[in-house]
Structure formats: structure tokens, C-alpha cells
């Protein structure tokens, strides 16, 4: 029996630059042209300045950050992840901006000992030819 594949991202006009950068193993985050603040995910209205015309541009970021929270997933909610359980999901605050947070898998394994503030670095999971998903790995040294 074949294991169902993981769901793949379906880029739209707003997210296409993010996924194109990820395919190149680069983390690029939307930045509002009005207030110059990063936004994850970019929406029709900038959550920082409230403009309805944010003209988001995607800019490469370091991918460095610190863990703010985490959870161990023991039961996959999507069939394509069933073979990956258990796995860790981490909520990471990126270094580029206070409060700029994203969630991703921690690739170091489900038994990794975490604490708030531990340093991580973006990593990428190649999930299909030409398609990569941002994830995280412990940074060398592991402390912030």
C-alpha cells in the first residue's frame, strides 16, 4: 500500500514570491511598503499600519530566531503526515523584527529538549521537485 503524499503548497498571487524563494532554500518575508514592517502572512490590510494598500514586497531574511513555544504532534491531522509522527512544531520569533513569528517543524527530532529562547535557524524540507517548505533546526550553540 502506498503512503499518501504530504499536501503541497498552492501558491496564489499573494504568496507566490514566498514559495518561489523557499524552492531556492531562501526565506523571504513580506514587508509593507508603507510602514516597512514585516508581515506573516501578508494580508490585504497591513496589521501594523492599517493601510489597505500595503504593496508588500518579499525580502530575504536571515532565518535566525528563537523558540517562543512548541508542541509535539502525536497524531497527524492530515493523512500525508501520518508517517512523520511524532514531530515537533515550533513557534519561532524571527530576529529581523520583534513579534515577527512563524510556525514550522523542528527537524532535530521529537525528543529534542527545548526551552523558551533557544536559538534556531531556518532549514528546508524538499517535499516535491521544485517545492520546499521552511522548517527549523537548532542553531549551532543552541542558546540565544
UniProtKB/TrEMBL annotation:
Database matches in Gene3D superfamilies: 6.10.30.10
Domain ChsH2 rubredoxin-like zinc ribbon: 19-55
The organism's taxonomic lineage, starting at the top: Bacteria, Bacillati, Actinomycetota, Actinomycetes, Mycobacteriales
InterPro entries xrefs: ChsH2_C (IPR002878), ChsH2_Znr (IPR022002), NA-bd_OB-fold (IPR012340), Thioester_dehydratase-like (IPR052513)
Protein's name in the database: OB-fold protein
Organism: Nocardia flavorosea
Listed SUPFAM superfamilies: Nucleic acid-binding proteins
Residue ranges of every copy of the ChsH2 C-terminal OB-fold domain listed in the record: 60-125
One Pfam family named in its UniProt record: OB_ChsH2_C
Amino acid at each position: 500500500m502506498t503512503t499518501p503524499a504530504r499536501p503541497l503548497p498552492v501558491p496564489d498571487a499573494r504568496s507566490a514570491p514566498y514559495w518561489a524563494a523557499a524552492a531556492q532554500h531562501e526565506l523571504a518575508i513580506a514587508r509593507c511598503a508603507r510602514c516597512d514592517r514585516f508581515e506573516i502572512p501578508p494580508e490585504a490590510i497591513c496589521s501594523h499600519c492599517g493601510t489597505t494598500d500595503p504593496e508588500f514586497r518579499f525580502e530575504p531574511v536571515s532565518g535566525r530566531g528563537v523558540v517562543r513555544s512548541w508542541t509535539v504532534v502525536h497524531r497527524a491531522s492530515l493523512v500525508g503526515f501520518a508517517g512523520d509522527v511524532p514531530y515537533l512544531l515550533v513557534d519561532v520569533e524571527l530576529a529581523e523584527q520583534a513579534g515577527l513569528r512563524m510556525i514550522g517543524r523542528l527537524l532535530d527530532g521529537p525528543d529534542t529538549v527545548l526551552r523558551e529562547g533557544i536559538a534556531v535557524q531556518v532549514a528546508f524540507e524538499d517535499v516535491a521537485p521544485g517545492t520546499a517548505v521552511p522548517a527549523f533546526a537548532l542553531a549551532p550553540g543552541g542558546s540565544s
